[in-house]
Amino acid sequence: MATKSLLVTGGAGFIGTNFIRHILATRPNWHMVNLDALTYAGNLANFQDLATNLANRHRFIHGDIRDESLLALLFAEESFDTVVHFAAESHVDRSIMGPEAFLKTNVEGTFRLLKASLKSWEEKGRPESFRFLHISTDEVYGSLGSEGCFTESTPYDPSSPYSASKAASDHFVRAYFRTYGLPTIITNCSNNFGPYQFPEKLIPLMILNIMEEKVLPVYGDGKHVRDWLYVIDHCDGLVRVLEEGRPGETYNIGGGAERQNIEVVQLLCRLLDLRLDRSGSKASRNLIKFVTDRPGHDRRYAIDASKIKGELGWSPAHEFEEALAATVDWYLANMDWVEMVRSGEYRKWIEINYGDR
Ligand code: NAD
Ligand code: TYD
Predict the structure, then answer these.
(1) Is 160 left (phi over 0), alpha (psi -120 to 50) or beta?
(2) How many Cβ atoms are within 10 Å of 172's Cβ, its own excluded?
(3) Is the CB of 87 within 6 Å of ligand 1?
(4) pLDDT 10s digit of each residue in the chain, 357 long?
(5) Residue 105: which of 9, 187, 178, 186 has the closest Cα?
(6) Is 138 a catalytic residue?
């Protein structure tokens, strides 16, 4: 199997962690440098349990993707042939409260990374095999009505500061291919779920609130639709794109599992009630509360994944309900992880260990 040297940005976040663990398990000749600023969403402890032979193929660097001198140093030291760019501010609700961080990391950060990648690629004589894989979202396409799906040619129409910043970053990535020839690929995926997701997003938030018998806040009428993708299937799709995808192209990645939010929350209530032995007046569905809708809330997302299926032979291997049950079990078995990412102790530890680097 071919050797690869990857720069993975945002590798301590939810999808990045799953991607790194997936590569360590399935691609023995791939080595990774994980550059992550360890914001509230990044957690180094995600790699604590790795066996030494795996851990040796993963080097962690605490830093910001906007730091040009750090990027120059890393490209000089490591001679990357692949960049996999996950680092981002990723939560819509946070982008409504504070959009500026999204502009800084998602737009400026992507630009600095493109600039450093282009410089290194040109210095090496523009190798054809180089790849810059940009992980983006279906949210750039805006909202669907009750019919149809997003294809790779759906016009961009972002609604939130988060999706606007991702759209801007996608445009820069595409421009670097068209203008300078940098071999970039963009993937736009639907809502992921699975292990290591920070408990601010719908699925982990609801799992924990159900466990702790807290209110389950469903925005608006709860009939907004998301197309759920198990994170392991997403990582498998990304590997196929890296190995077989064509530079300059975009690939949509979706789970083919459209569900209304209220359906997802009710299903989580059922899954946890079974495990926690709750029923009748104690049933968790009694915790559901419809709350004020999110401003600019997109009604429906759905991906047409026929391009990645036809060209690269990818389709999701996991069925939604089974993957959701496995996710519930992961959270139940990993409450120490949950406590750590929620606690100020973790933040303090990072400050002490990495504050001055
Ligand atoms: P996440 O918020 O869990 O993780 C983001 C990671 O980026 C964190 O580890 C954080 O510390 C790091 N980071 C943030 N700012 C940084 C900076 N300036 N420099 C270096 N590192 C920084 O996000 P995620 O859910 O894992 O999403 C990963 C990527 O996938 C994002 O680009 C996101 O837009 C995209 N995406 C996510 C989903 C989803 O459902 N989670 C769906 C579609 C696309
Ligand atoms: P989220 O996980 O924030 O992902 P995104 O906004 O990127 O799709 O939200 C998924 C859906 O769940 C979205 O329609 C908003 C809704 N939602 C709630 O109803 N309540 C909540 O507490 C959260 C976090 C989300």
Answers:
(1) beta
(2) 17
(3) yes
(4) 789 999 999 999 999 999 999 999 999 999 999 999 999 999 999 999 998 888 899 999 999 999 999 999 999 999 999 999 999 999 999 999 999 999 999 999 999 999 999 999 999 999 999 999 999 999 999 999 999 999 999 999 999 999 999 999 999 999 999 999 999 999 999 999 999 999 999 999 999 999 999 999 999 999 999 999 999 999 999 999 999 999 999 999 999 999 999 999 999 999 999 999 999 999 999 999 999 999 999 999 999 999 999 999 999 999 999 999 999 999 999 999 999 998 877 677 667 766 654
(5) 9
(6) yes
Q: Which of 188, 159, 35, 39 is nearest to 101 (CA)?
A: 39
Q: Is the CB of 113 under 6 A from ligand 1?
A: no
**With contact defined as beta carbons under 8 Å apart, do 35 and 63 qualify?**
yes
The CA distance from 257 to 302, in Å, is: 8
Residue of 36, 64, 89, 139 marked catalytic: 139
**Which residues' Cβ are closer than 6 Å to ligand 2?**
92, 191, 201-202, 205, 217-219, 224, 226, 261, 294
Beta carbons of 287 and 216 less than 8 angstroms apart: yes
Q: Which of 36, 81, 162, 236 is catalytic?
A: 162
Pocket of ligand 1 contains residue 316 by CB under 6 Å? no
Question: Residue 336 Cα, ligand 2 centroid: separation in angstroms?
Answer: 24
188 by DSSP, 3-state: which?
Answer: strand
- Domains with residue ranges and CATH for the chain: 4-193+229-256+296-318 (3.40.50.720)
**Is position 196 annotated as part of the catalytic site?**
no
Cα 256 from Cα 303, distance rounded (Å): 7
Looking at the DSSP bridge assignments, the partners of residue 289 are 217
Determine whether the shortest distance from the Cβ of 84 to ligand 1 is under 6 A. Answer: no
